[in-house]
Design goal:
The complex is a heterotetramer of chains A (about 375), B (about 450), C (about 240) and D (about 170). With about 375 residues, chain A is an alpha+beta fold. Chain A is built from 16 helices and 9 strands. Classes of the chains: A alpha+beta (about 375), B mainly alpha (about 450), C alpha+beta (about 240), D mainly alpha (about 170). β6 of chain A pairs antiparallel with β1 of chain B.
Amino acid sequence: MSTATAPNYELLQQEGLETSLLEISMGPHHPSTHGVFRMDVKLDGETVVELRPVFGYLHRNHEKLAENMTYLSSMPFTDRLDYFNSMTNNWAYALAAEKLIEVEVPERAEYLRVIMAELTRLVNHVTLVGFFINDLGALGTPLMYAFREREKILDLFEQASGARMMCNYFRFGGLRNDVPEGWLDRTRELVDRFPAFLDEYEQLLCENEIILSRTQGVGNLSRELAINAGITGPMLRASGVNYDLRKVDAYGIYDRFKFRVPYTDGDTGDCYDRFMIRMLEMRESVAILKQALADIPEGDIIGKVSKVFKPKPAEVYGRIEGPKGELGFYLIADGTTKPYRYRVRPPSLINLTVLRDMCLGGKIADAVIILGSIDIVLGEVDR
Amino acid sequence: MSFELIKDILIATVPLLVIFPSLFAFTTWMERKALARIQNRIGPNKTGIPCTRIGLFGLGQPAADGIKMIFKEDIVPRGADKLFHLLAPILALIPAMLILCFLPLEFPWGKFMSAPVQAFLLDSAVIFFFAISGLATLAIFMAGWASRNKYSLLGGMRAVAQMVSYEIPLVLSAVVVVMMVGSLNAKEIADAQTGFNWFVFTPWGLAAFVIFFIAALAETNRSPFDLPEAESEIIAGYFTEYSGFKFALFFLGEYIAMFAISGLAVTLFLGAGDGPFLTAAPWLSVMWFIGKIFGLIAVMIWLRGTLPRLRVDQLMAFAWKFLLPLSIFNILLAGLTHFALDARVAATSDAILYSIHASHTHSDAANHDHPKPVAGQKEAVMGALHYTDKDWMGAMKWFSKAALKGHAQSRSILGWGFGIWAMSLIVLYVMAKGLDNVSRSTAKPREYLYAE
Amino acid sequence: MSILGGGIFKGMAVTLRNFVGSYFYKERLTTNDYEWRPDGALPQSIGDYPKEEGEQLSDTTTVNHYSRNFPMLLHDTGEPMDTIRCVACQICERECPPQCIYIEKSTEKIENADGKPQFYPAKFDIDVSVCMSCQICVEVCPFDAIVMNSQFELSTPDRFGGLLVRRDDLLKSNDYYHKIHPQEAAARDQKMADDKAAKVAKKKAAAEKAKAAAEAKAASAAEAKASEDKTEDAE
Amino acid sequence: MTQEITFWVLAVIAVLGALVAVRRRNLIHGVFALMIFFAALSGLFLLLLAEFIAAVQILVYIGAVGILLLFAIMLTERVTGDDARDITSRGSFWGWAAALAVLVFLLLPAIQSADLAQTTQPHNPSVKALGQQMMDPYVITLEVLALLLTAALIGAVAASQGGEKTKEDIDDA
């Protein structure tokens, strides 16, 4: 499937002039492969003729580990999947397990979950844009601005959960603890300030001629290929499919909020679209956050559920719209305290599958930014 | 005689070898500090005087960096060409240092020299400058090839292609100034711009300056043209296998080349050592010169903090499809404006001079009928005199004084001057815009759909 | 029709604004300019900067009640081993995701703070080089015996033994816990008191019920009590 | 005195560079040795106060020809030449003889006719004068040369792209 839609690139071979390809192995310790990822690239001059992604360097046996420990014990390990977005990872796993044990999540916990998830989305998108521009060759200026904003949100996470990145905050039936006093006010302040930062960010990046000409028309992903390859998240919406699990599933209490889903008309689906969709999604996240912070009630934080439980034999799939795409957890319970099967549907890995199709025929610099625009975290790709 | 010569050469060169490397150290600090502030960081602020807690805003950082570089292990990859691996950084530094000699810097210690050193007053200094600065390409190629590393080789190839391409617009934009001054001698070019007659104030000079600056960025591998060392694509390009002192030498060479090419830009377009208060303190000239160099370097740092990098095909397209036609067109425009100005303004100013001459002879011959002097005649004559001296900044000053007093010919001159000036700028802008549209695929911000 | 290079100039305006702004607005900065220690000493060693155990280095913006580093064992006021809360039930050992806890149950019972005989951990080791500070052990502990410490200066030249914390080093008093996590400790004490009261009430009720039942059927009452004990042990 | 020392130093460098360029197996080393030769030659021109020629020597021979050679060599395999066979050894004697004969033939008339007294007079043709000469009496020659070079350039572009076109034509037909 994937090779059929790849651009039909033929090496320019003129008569009497034999050229040989340059094979380079980009990674696993290359500055722009976002972790320990490797691309075996064959170059004709600077043009990518062949590209083979190699991964698995960060494989930690996540799924098999989880099958050998209780349901709760897997929760901290989900933080380590996509270590930028531990809150949403927690939520996806909690959502799956809650289907097994059928527990009511208190109202306040639902609101806090939405707040945490949208803050996570802000963290992810803002740093992704920073890294993406870094891949384009800027000296990290947007990345530094992004890190400053990320730092503020991580401070909030730390105050709420005790850890900045490995939050481990969600529990089956609610959250581990309530947020401390004054936390909501601090969050409101941050959310109120965030649009001003986004304005500045957009002014810095969105009209820059170099960024426009570097990203437009690069790494085109057609709507058909995107759907066939199972692409999800902002990448799918950039290819012109209006599909957002927050609208489709309306999991949690997302049906209570008014927000819009940005998507393209599907003509291009290039790196610029993927970049812009993320910029626009941040505005929507801010809108959701404002509503959630205005409406959040007082009350319990976790439903009645025992720490160690034996669910009835069942088969469940819990999925959420993670910042990178559809993050799903598939669990089979066999009546013991441990899951019989534990499977993660990682958006990073599945979005990465179209890398070769998008890179062939482009320049090596394009391959780097295409990889950047896919938004992968190797912790999730390799698990 | 030969002793004198050697003394002169030493007086002339040793300060250059001392001043510019120390300025390099300062520039690395400045760059780190400025980039840090652009990125809302603080930058080096603790490294000051050793063994104390006096931070001096981190001014000790370059020294600390240098010490670190010297004591680092020098790694030569197995399979590398050891000789060339060693020679490349040295070869990168030599041309950069050499071209500093062609800058018309007037150091106060010049008066200790028995005769001006020949090399500084070369008739073809500008050609020499380009010829020798081109040698840096070889060093980079050497480094890329000798490292026996594919990333180094890619970086080296990129560097060669880029520097060869950008040398053309660089030279062509300098040609305009050479054409107008009628000399390749750096000193004469500098002298032609005294009294704020900087070429950057002319429309063709402005365009040439912008082209020159952009091409200079590419020549010195600065952002957004830092493809040869693009860390997100090819690790560090030709630097990849360099460490320790060899790396420091490359670094030094790169910065000295930056100084040199900024110095040439200052010489050609920004009036060299020209500036205010020079009559009171002639030694300020060298300060102005170095200050202007630092101004240009500040802009380079600013650009580096803002812009991402171009892709290799866009880089080539930009050089060949945008800068090259624009600089050729600029040469044409410079010639045309020169003729147009000569045709009108020079003729009018000649007429002013002639009329005053005629009135004088007339009043001398027949002593009865004093013609009433036209208002502003005196100022107009001053303007015309300045104009014939090619001091058009002064001429404009006097002509506008005359025009304020209602002098018709001065008004016509001013009108023509500013008209041509503005017209040329508009033509250049339209040309550049058109070339941009032709050379670049239409990339513009897009509209997005929203689903409720 | 946009201006030639307009986007670049816009971007440059932003960076210029940030350049200037970073000198005037502290909230713009990504990093903080830390001061030298007030006593004027350069940090000589790692142990130098937190002067006391539990000293908070973070500033007011990160008031952190939930900070967690590595677990510690709690004992009530008195000699550590006399008042240890842990009964070596080994739930935390089973639940620990990275399996960094190693417990050996004692063979004989000792009296706890309330004077009730209980088992105690003969060995309780935590390998902090493996521990990932997830706090699951704290959550699953039915006796509130294990909580999170906030001490983070654990660097040691010994890679293996130095990072294996033994029972006696893990034992900290409840007062210390109150010092590092005042709110959490107060809440936990409250909960324990409530639990105890509830237990007492329950026991009382059970005893009364048993008494009533014993009058009717002595044999079945004894059986009921035995089963209750069994469930308690299992917990 | 200084001039003589400089001359001899430059001359030795030039000859050594030329020898290395010819004898070296490693092609890249050879090219760089050739460039050293060019640079020394440029120094010799400067010593003769022919600064324009010196600049052009660097600009054209090192900057352009050298880079061109490097690019050409990059396209070949076995750059280091370790396994290249020595194919010139058989005719070595005749080669030397022929080279010597050419040298004598070229140098003798020049040495015989040279008036050494005259050449010691420093004569500094200024670049300005050179430019005026080029733009006034020799302007037509210059323009014709420029036209020729442009034609050659266009021809080169056409030649490099022509093959492709004919191939397409063949494909069409």
